[in-house]
Design goal:
Elements (H helix, E strand, L loop, with lengths): L19 E2 L42 H8 L3 H23 L4 E5 L5 E3 H15 L4 E6 L2 E6 L6 E9 L10 E9 L17 E9 L3 E7 L2 E7 L12 E2 L2 E5 L10 E4 L9 H12 L3 E2 L5 H10 L4 E4 L9 E2 H14 L3 E3 L18 E2 L1 E4 L1 H12 L2
Parallel strand pairs: 4-6, 13-14, 13-15
Antiparallel strand pairs: 1-11, 2-3, 4-5, 6-7, 7-8, 8-9, 9-10, 10-12, 15-19, 16-18, 17-19
């Protein structure tokens, strides 16, 4: 299978900026690699557990504006999506140049803030405070709902840089964004009393060798890639779009052979969770877990399957934030045909009311049959 390769230009560009200029020259050769996805014929049988991509190269890729015009009828939702993508582009560029150091400050949870945490959070605040459509904003770093534009329509919640414990390793990290109407919920801020199902859209950015962002649109989940210059997609003036649509209407299959087990300490107190781990091992599932929520759940959209489990116990309480983490991912996974569990009742995490900005939750999310297995084995539902 030919490997799809993108050159990454060095100059920053925003979603609303002019198209990117092409490089003066491009590599004349393409990397070609033959891989075996199924079967144990390779050395040590590794080829049968790697789950390589099946995404094929396209002759052309739609621009961000084209897809939003076709698949997002609400003009103001389009606006907030583009503003948030601008912020993700700026965070991408900041991560390319910033060193990972301790900032000397703590967030409201007592966690030491890293330089990149502060930079990403400042970029997000700049985006919502300068927006014509955002009325309220809230950051996981400082979970207070703060006013932005009184004439705005949306409440935006975000985790600016998920993966602080792995970013120093130069592993993939991400940004999680949930967008609610300020009319949802019980108060004027649009968040408290609302549920994840009330979101008008959600975005999850993954910063790795490439920057890709999942976005909830009218008819499903779409992925946009930043700064790519695929062959055949040059504009008439020799430039490239800053964002292209790399995948459309992504689906998550009901069954999985990949598992991502978080909070494994809970297995000491929750027999069902220990039994579930044993099931995955005995059934020869492939472990794919980094300790970062964004890469661990995002892979469900690239591999089209997966299960992320994070139950709780008395000694291992819930850490994931409902508004900043579980709700945005929950909306995207369920739109793609997956399922979620609140880890307590077995119901969808999108139906849990947000009663506090920093409300925590257990979570199981991914392929539908795997979530059902979690509910049965761990919760007895």
């Amino acid at each position: 299978m030919a490997a799809q390769t993108f050159a990454m230009p060095a100059i920053a560009a925003r979603a609303s900026a002019a198209p990117r200029a092409a490089k003066a020259s491009k590599a004349a050769t393409k990397a070609v690699r033959s891989v075996r996805v199924n079967g144990g014929g390779g050395e040590y049988g590794a080829s049968g557990t790697s789950f390589y991509t099946t995404t094929e190269k396209q002759e052309s890729y739609d621009s961000l504006d084209f897809v939003l015009n076709e698949k997002c009828k609400d003009l103001e939702v389009r606006t907030v999506i583009k503003e948030q993508l601008d912020a993700c582009a700026d965070i991408t560029e900041a991560l390319r140049s910033a060193l990972v150091t301790v900032e000397g400050s703590e967030n409201t949870f007592g966690d030491a803030q890293l330089s990149v945490d502060v930079i990403a959070d400042n970029i997000m605040w700049d985006a919502v405070r300068s927006s014509a459509v955002v009325a309220w904003g809230a950051s996981e770093e400082e979970p207070d709902i703060k006013p932005c534009n009184p004439k705005g329509r949306f409440t935006v919640c975000w985790d600016p840089l998920d993966g602080s414990s792995i970013v120093d390793n130069n592993w993939a990290v991400g940004t999680m964004i949930g967008v609610w109407s300020k009319e949802s919920g019980d108060g004027e801020d649009g968040l408290l009393g609302a549920t994840g199902r009330d979101q008008v859209t959600a975005l999850i950015a993954l910063y790795g060798p490439r920057t890709t962002v999942l976005v909830a649109l009218d008819d499903g989940v779409y992925e946009f890639s930043y700064g790519c210059t695929p062959e055949g997609c040059q504009l008439p003036d020799g430039t490239f779009e800053p964002w292209i649509c790399s995948r459309k209407q992504i689906k998550i299959k009901p069954d999985s052979k990949i598992f991502s087990p978080a909070n494994m300490r809970a297995g000491q107190e929750v027999p069902g969770y220990k039994a579930l781990m044993d099931f995955y091992i005995d059934s020869k599932y492939t472990l794919r877990y980094t300790g970062g929520l964004v890469p661990d759940v995002y892979q469900q959209f690239t591999k089209n399957m997966g299960i992320f489990t994070n139950p709780t116990s008395d000694k291992s309480p819930a850490k994931l934030r409902l508004a900043f983490e579980a709700s945005p991912f929950g909306l995207l996974v369920e739109m793609a045909g997956g399922k979620t569990s609140d880890g307590v009742t077995g119901g969808s995490v999108l139906d849990v009311k947000i009663m506090a900005v920093d409300q925590r939750t257990a979570l199981c999310i991914g392929s539908s049959n795997e979530v059902d297995r979690f509910n049965k084995m761990v919760l007895g539902k």
